[in-house]
Amino acid sequence: MEIPDHPVVEIDLSAIASNWQNACHVFRGAHLGAVLKNDAYGLGASRIAPCLVELGCRNFWVAQFAEGVALREILGAEQSRIYVLHGSGRHSLHDHAAHGLIPVLACLDEVLLASAEASRLGERYRVAIHLDTGLSRLGLDRTQVEVLVEQPHRLDGLIVDAWVTQLMRFDDPRSAECFDQRERFIRWTELLPRADRSLAASTALFTDSSWHFDHARIGSALFGVETAPGFLRNYRPAVTLTAPVLRVQSVPAGTQVGYSGMFKTTAPAMLATLAIGYGDGLPVSLANQGQVFIGGIAAPIVGGISMGLITIDVTRCEPNLVRAGTRAEIYGRHQPLHQLAQAAGISPNALLVPTASLATRVYHTAIAELSQGNEA
Ligand SMILES: *Cc1c(COP(=O)(O)O)cnc(C)c1O
Q: What is this structure's pTM?
């Protein structure tokens, strides 16, 4: 295969499978769902969803209607459920049902419209309903919940599959705000018609079972992304991003590097230019921050982040390991994603999604090989 002259993201499907199995092992509720929004966090839902189905995953969560339609094409009409997190929006309940999608209704208006459509067409529609317990983003607030409690006929024609809420400090379920939200969620759903309750994302799943409820929705934990330090257990990193060296150059002390001379060498140095930049999703806040790895050795980022280029200091690297065409690891085996994200001052997924979405994807390890591996 020709060596690509641009960023490549390598996705280890067997690591994702192992992370799924690990999460199943931890989860005490009834349904564990996989969140595949934004094309599976940039990693490609069309390759990841079938692997998860093979492992027994039957519940999928996406953000938008169009993503749901595409995922239904991939999964076929069989048993799986696909939830659309952003609500029904401008799509009718009939359209959702036609594609086998369950909207997570995002406000009281959506609930009323859905019920009206059901009564108009003499149908019953399966929906989930989002409750805003504190994030102030999507869902019914307290007064809207009271409307449903006092006027249960507002739900006529709707089969409520799940009550859904999301923690405002998803990266820290032990915070007081999260306890408040959980308390509110329990109180509200006790007053509402009985349905599965869904609160936990990855961190809550790995906190303890008091956060699990009936249906958990996990993304980051599947892809081996640590959204909070140290919460994941027994996980395998699944993603590696690399970019090729275009040029290596030795420079004297006092050399200005990059636009505006954002960096100046203080000693003779060996610099390498990499074919990756903000156009490939690399955050500009990595200017003079963080490092990448070449041949297992850390190479600091020096100067600014250009559209398609960065410069790294490879003075400490083995000279014959760094030449044009050598691939540097941006994140992956030597440097976890969250470490580079921290250097950039952003969350790990804010680094993963754009970089993975824009890179050429290469998948490792077919699911068939995995099951053999498991038997060994
Ligand atoms: C993204 C998202 C999730 C998954 O979160 P992770 O921390 O990646 O597991 C779950 N629920 C909602 C509503 C989300 O937006």
A: 0.94
